[in-house]
Design a protein that fits this description.
With 293 residues, the protein is α+β, with helices and mostly antiparallel strands. It has 2 domains: 127 residues; 152 residues, Reverse transcriptase/Diguanylate cyclase domain (Alpha-Beta Plaits), CATH 3.30.70. It has a 4-stranded antiparallel β-sheet with strand order 2-3-1-6, sandwiched between helices. Strands 4-5 form a two-stranded antiparallel ribbon. A hairpin with a 4-residue loop joins strand 2 and strand 3. Helix 2 runs antiparallel to helix 3, helix 5 crosses helix 6 and helix 9 packs antiparallel against helix 10. The radius of gyration is 32 Å and the shape is elongated. The protein starts with a helix and ends in a 7-residue tail after the last helix. Keywords: Membrane, Transmembrane, Transmembrane helix.
Length: 293
Amino acid sequence: MKKSLLSQLENKISLEMVVSFTLTMYLIQELVFYNILSGDIFYVSVLLTFLGLILGLLSTSFMLLSSSIIVIFLGAFLLFFEPIIMPTNFKLFLIVVIPVYATIAYYMKKSVYIRKLLSFREDDIRGYLKYRDPLTGYRTVESFFSKYPEFISSLSNVNHADSRVVVASLFYVDFYDQYFYRSKESTDQLIRDMGKVLLDKRNPEELFFYMKKGAFVVLSIIYDNEQERKSILDRNKITKESLNTLFFKTNIVQGITIRQSECFITRKTTLTADQVLHYLYRRAETDLAVEYI
């Protein structure tokens, strides 16, 4: 979605430029008014300018700022309909001074607030980017190693009807290095397409991880019974078939080969996250029969 014209303008104009422009405009205004206005009227102009800046700084939203500006604008406009003896140029100044300075002050406050917010949330943003892959938007390898112990610790030590099992499912495109060597852009598009298929074919409660080089891992939790195990195997089969319908598109459209495997993990397992990944890759490469751990 394209950014609005106002957002584009805000990105181009820095806070320092706005502050410098405001101070320069205020200084020129006071120097000019000091020579042409009487003392009382000069003080009124200074007060109104100050009120405009305060209004902008105290406004919590653009709608509140707009409402305040409209009320003040209407009040000042009444100067033209009342028997107030005052130069026309100064009447015009009274009409625009508060809206102009209030808008500038509101923009300055908004910019300062955003900078402050980014400073406070820098660690959160850094952590989010660390655990999110920029290409797919899915969790990263680091996130998998972080989430795996949490999933295992949530499982019960006792086998009963409601016992649960963690299923780690691997899907990866074969010959990834060859695709990447031929066209990085086409390979990236293929990975995005794979991520979209996973999003469409898998359940919302499952966690998706992009492990780099065309490999995705899906963590699922199911009940420990034959029906649930068969269901996850069927779901993996459907997902693999859907992924195999994708193409690597350059000047020549080429089909791809998807390898897939899964690992059933209970609380009693001693497999670490590294060992689970090694098992998944080994089984996907050699097409081992189904194993339960």
